[in-house]
Amino acid sequence: MVDKSKYALLLFALFLSVVAALEKKEDSITFKARVIVDNKLPSGQNFTIHCKSKDDDLDVHTILPNDIYTFHFYNNFWGTTLFFCRVTTSYGQGVYDLYKFKRDKKRCSVCVYRVTKDGVYAVSTEPGRYDFIFKWE
């Protein structure tokens, strides 16, 4: 016969573990993020972008001159949200993780990128600055 008090204590300990895990992960559960990709190519050129996560395929989009592409989402429970995107221009192409929870949770809730003839830049944590993140292949 199972001792009910030991069983109840075990269930209570499990409950406390789950509550503690939820408190640590609270921002990953409720944290909404947005990605914005800005077309800054010269001479009125388009580019295409195709973003995916493990669970979502956002399809291929053509971004017109001086236009933006944007999407938003909630981070997953485990704090492992990742969106990677292939950007294709007449200057080349590249694939980059445009959103990675562990990297971006404190860096940006709105992550802004610029597509240029040199490659892709990300808005810096310093106001008014953009950091170069990848050049075209």
Automatic annotation (TrEMBL):
Pfam families: Self-incomp_S1. Residues 1-21 form the signal peptide. InterPro entries: Self-incomp_S1. GO terms for biological process: rejection of self pollen. Keywords: Secreted, Self-incompatibility, Signal. It is found in: Secreted. GO terms for cellular component: extracellular region. Belongs to the plant self-incompatibility (S1) protein family. This is S-protein homolog. It comes from Trapa natans (Water chestnut).
